[in-house]
Amino acid sequence: MSVTRRFGGLMTYAGTPCNAGAGIRPPSTQRILLLSLLYLVGLTLVFGNAHEESQNFLAFFCLYWVSFILAPPARILSPLTFFYLYYGLWFVVAPMFAGRYQNDVMSASEYGWAFAFAYAVFGIGLISLLLGEKFAMRWLASPARQTARLPMGRLRWGMVFLYVVSTLAVVCIVLASGGFAVWINDPGDAFLNRGGSGVFVILSHFSSMALALTAGYYGYAKKKIWPILLFLGWLILTSPVHGSKFQLALLIILTILPWMRHSKLFAWDSICLGIGLVLVLGLGLYFRNHSWIDAQTFLPYTLNYFTALENLAVSIRDFAPGGMETFFLPFNKFLMPFGLSDPSFYFDMNHYLTDIYFPHAWEIRATEQWPVETDLYLNFYFFAGLPVVAAFLWCIGVLYGMALRWDTVGAWFASTVVTIFMISHLRGSLINHTDFYMYPYIFMMFFLFRRYVFRGKTIGLEVQPSLRSTGSP
């Protein structure tokens, strides 16, 4: 008879991890085939409407919700969740309620093409994420079988070190961009004019992300709440300097990752996380604009924040489809260490287009965001870029499948970070200049923490022992 051992709700049988109720399975082939069929039908519909210069919002709205019904995300930290969230906010909710899309604006032909392009990326993105997750959960073998736990003594001193480094990086950013008085008087303007502090910004990103991860793991392993509260308090104090709402959301998620990694989409803890992220968005918008915004203007301004659809439509109206028009702009960053860069250089598509449409904003290096569909339109004649987007999202799906299968700290860190960064790419370029240092950092963290699991050797996959040992389907 098999010997069983229980680890926090999951069991291992005769030393081999298996599921005791989590029910984690790869996406079904039938579901992927249904999505593929819907995608073909949807493409015919939306591009037919665009060609006939008919409104496409209703078609996109229906295809979005049919896709959600066919392939709902099971867990809150799934890339699928954030993928639906992005297209839901920017291409469903905003067109319905934001003032910029009222008064029959979306009847213009460029909006019909914008929705068609958006659905082309949305549909192939869903399929690619599911295929990547399925591939990892069926084919990628787990790392070494021994249980490895992070040593608590080293972790505690590591947290102290990371607090010191992270705080010093924040102080250096403040001092390099005008001093504390400037940040206290107008944090939004100070954030936009922090040029010259780039090295400290990178150091802040690296150290604060590692700090969030270790604080969360330490609190989880020791069953203590104070490491989480301490980090959140530090984050509140330093939040104006971190600035980016996505960066703040990422740090919060990394802190509670050990508890949230398997949370169902509609569980209470997931709902609380969603409310918290909405508050982060609201506070971020407030601190950026607190000098003029008030209760009456806050909601309309927040809804008008989601400009991806309008910017996509404008780029379709004003530009012809092209090849490699802006794709290599991020590589201008490599000229800076050699003194070959110039203040007029653009580092991505958004810089270039902001200077064209919003020159006053570009003077202070504020940027508008054009979606990835514009990137494909300007650099791949749109359709040639769909396989590139599919490959990018497939890799994100693979990382998530690895996190589910392995349940290691490194895999979950990598999956969570690239999932949050996915939104930056969806509302920007396929290549961002920050990728040149962020992806090596993500790989380093993945490698360093690849053998450390959250609880014993539990993975939570419904697979046979023979399959676990070989990684075969």
TrEMBL record:
<feature type="transmembrane region" description="Helical">
    <location>
        <begin position="436"/>
        <end position="453"/>
    </location>
</feature>
<keyword id="KW-1133">Transmembrane helix</keyword>
<feature type="transmembrane region" description="Helical">
    <location>
        <begin position="232"/>
        <end position="259"/>
    </location>
</feature>
<feature type="transmembrane region" description="Helical">
    <location>
        <begin position="265"/>
        <end position="286"/>
    </location>
</feature>
<feature type="transmembrane region" description="Helical">
    <location>
        <begin position="409"/>
        <end position="430"/>
    </location>
</feature>
<feature type="transmembrane region" description="Helical">
    <location>
        <begin position="380"/>
        <end position="402"/>
    </location>
</feature>
<feature type="transmembrane region" description="Helical">
    <location>
        <begin position="32"/>
        <end position="51"/>
    </location>
</feature>
<keyword id="KW-0472">Membrane</keyword>
<feature type="transmembrane region" description="Helical">
    <location>
        <begin position="111"/>
        <end position="131"/>
    </location>
</feature>
<feature type="transmembrane region" description="Helical">
    <location>
        <begin position="196"/>
        <end position="220"/>
    </location>
</feature>
<feature type="transmembrane region" description="Helical">
    <location>
        <begin position="81"/>
        <end position="99"/>
    </location>
</feature>
<feature type="transmembrane region" description="Helical">
    <location>
        <begin position="57"/>
        <end position="74"/>
    </location>
</feature>
<keyword id="KW-0812">Transmembrane</keyword>
<feature type="transmembrane region" description="Helical">
    <location>
        <begin position="160"/>
        <end position="184"/>
    </location>
</feature>
<protein>
    <submittedName>
        <fullName>Uncharacterized protein</fullName>
    </submittedName>
</protein>
